[in-house]
Amino acid sequence: MKMKIAVLPGDGIGPEITQQSVKVLQAIAERFDHEFSFEEAIVGAAAIDLMGNPLPEATLDLCKKSDAVLFGAIGDPKYDNDPEAKIRPEQGLLRLRKELGLFANIRPVKTYQKLLDQSPLRPERIAGADIEIFRELTGGIYFGEKSTAEDGKSATDVCTYSVEEIERIAHLAFKAAQKRRKKLTLVDKANVLETSRLWRKTVTNLSKEYKDVELDFLFIDNAAMQMILNPTQFDVILTENMFGDILSDEASVIGGSIGLLASASVGNENAMFEPIHGSYPQATGKGIANPIASILSAAMLLDHFNMTEEAEAVRKAVEISINSNVCTPDINKNSEYSTKKVGEFIELNITDPDNHIVN
Ligand code: IPM
Ligand code: MN
């Protein structure tokens, strides 16, 4: 198959990790006889520095005319520490999500047997955890009206959701649950927020179309606690934009490193694949960033192309690298493996699957 992939490396460790997933995708194309073309564009702080705009039009155009977007990371501390900054790298990512209509962000969380001891949580509590978080991505408080009073003494962020916005992601979450363990947990704050009550009502109504899925509800504060106490109770979690942002970072602790968590952002016309971690500026250029979250995001990209066997080949190669201790220092403190070495090892295990390269 012929596919056009836009590559947006972004900031910090973005370029180094994305390079590894492009290599992995090239290995897949070769082994399975596909034709993937890659075109790069700038976004985030890198784009502000060059063009004064975190999402230049050329970048957006490229994404729109590609079959998928592979995204690295975004963010730069020089903006984080400047509350007065009007232009910020993150605006590039948020606008991209909105313009591409990527309303559903899917974040799988699972444990690897080999890494059970990596998590600060007790191995027996997390063993077998396998969760898929559906985070709404283009609405809520992230995109509501924002303002700061002229005297600078107050500020407002409005949170709005429509039934339509809730329904379209809820359909996807129910369908995912049908293919998994048939349980869907809606996480909200319906004891306090109007928008959460609308989520509950809308999702409850919709559940009549998915009678084989068991639906339950949790308040976000309780969900945050349950995620740590008993993560194996969860199958698919559905939640709004900001709760999903927070809950998924928390959930990454289960897997042992945030450097392992991939995501897919999908809409009706476009799709983008990115690690859930940020730009990790302290690690930039040091070769210590974990490329696996990006590589597993590339696997989700292959799933999106209906290349199931190809996606499995990537996941298998990642598993071999974890089982062989070919990991960056976030997982293996004394590791001598750099970002690039881990990427190459995974690539090799795709190129030469009959001759599993192990350590
Ligand atoms: C994420 C990130 C982004 C978000 C930031 C960089 C805007 O934290 O993808 O989870 O908050 O959505
Ligand atoms: Mn986040």
TrEMBL record:
Transmembrane ranges, per UniProt, are none
Q: Which residues form the signal peptide?
A: none
Q: Name one GO cellular component term.
A: cytosol
* Species the sequence originates in: Salinimicrobium marinum
An example of a GO molecular function for this protein is: 3-isopropylmalate dehydrogenase activity
Name of the featured protein: 3-isopropylmalate dehydrogenase
Q: What class of enzyme is it?
A: oxidoreductase
Task: Enumerate the residues binding Mg(2+).
Answer: 221, 245, 249
Q: Where in the cell is it found?
A: Cytoplasm
Alphabetically list the UniProt keywords: Amino-acid biosynthesis, Branched-chain amino acid biosynthesis, Cytoplasm, Leucine biosynthesis, Magnesium, Manganese, Metal-binding, NAD, Oxidoreductase
Kindly list the positions annotated as binding substrate. Answer: 97, 107, 135, 221
Q: Does the keyword Oxidoreductase apply?
A: yes
Recorded hits in HAMAP family, A to Z, give:
LeuB_type1
- Give the cofactor binding note: Binds 1 Mg(2+) or Mn(2+) ion per subunit.
Subunit field text: Homodimer.
